[in-house]
Request: fold
Amino acid sequence: MTAPGTLITVAPTGAEHHKADVPNLPVTLDELVRTAQDCERVGAGMIHVHIRGEDAAPTLDLRRLEDTVAAIREHTDLIVQLSTGGAVSDPEEDRLRVLEAGPDSASCTMGTVNFGDAVFLNRWEFIVELHSRMRERGILPEYEIFDLGQLASLNRLLDQHGAPAGGHVHVDLVMGVPGGMPGDAETLVAAVRLMPAGATFSATGIGKTTVPVMLASLATGGHLRVGMEDTLNYARGERVRDNAQLVARAAGIAKIAQRPPMSSDEVRTLLGVTRND
Ligand code: KMH
Ligand code: ZN
Reply:
């Protein structure tokens, strides 16, 4: 699987970190839009969005999601991907309602996984419902894979329920979650072997697995996801300054790998995404 350039997705916020502990985490709409612009400038093509409420706690409020999609579209050309994973405590109906905000893309996690001390629950029937609703609405799923067995589930999903809207399958390997697959080159190569035929993939490594996963993904024709959702340290003992710092590093390494960052238009062509507004 070779790729001409590199799709860099930024995951700037997530649902797990507290603003009180991480003051540079983008949580307001203004902070998020500024982050999106900064990250686009240094090489991001897509943004994976979790939003926060007035209290900076994670929320799946539909109005806020709609406003967020509109604002990022107004100020950037990034492909807007909303998280349907939310926080581990979010109920299924709220997670399904995210699609009503009309993003270009949305995440679709392919199974249940231990998530630190919590459980990230993704029942088979729920996965099928998410996949089917995205098909109906023309939203590109990004199939999130936390463990190798979830790739078997993805192949089963596609066999039983058909390809996503547009026909292209895009996968994101989320590696190094405590409870999921390790973030190392051997595991990434094993995952690549289990990919559906013709799929593209990106990979992200949580915490200190960020750099090894990045290098392994580039070496195997994969794309990259980086951001403060996944890591708060830039190097040992050095905190991340902002999301753009992580995107800039990924872009630099991608250039060295002769796989320069793709523009959002190139990413739209690669993934078969039409602007969904
Ligand atoms: N926050 C995690 C429980 C996704 O965005 O779809 C789930 C997650 C995956 O981040
Ligand atoms: Zn996420």
About this structure: The chain is about 35% helix and 20% strand. The mean pLDDT is 97.
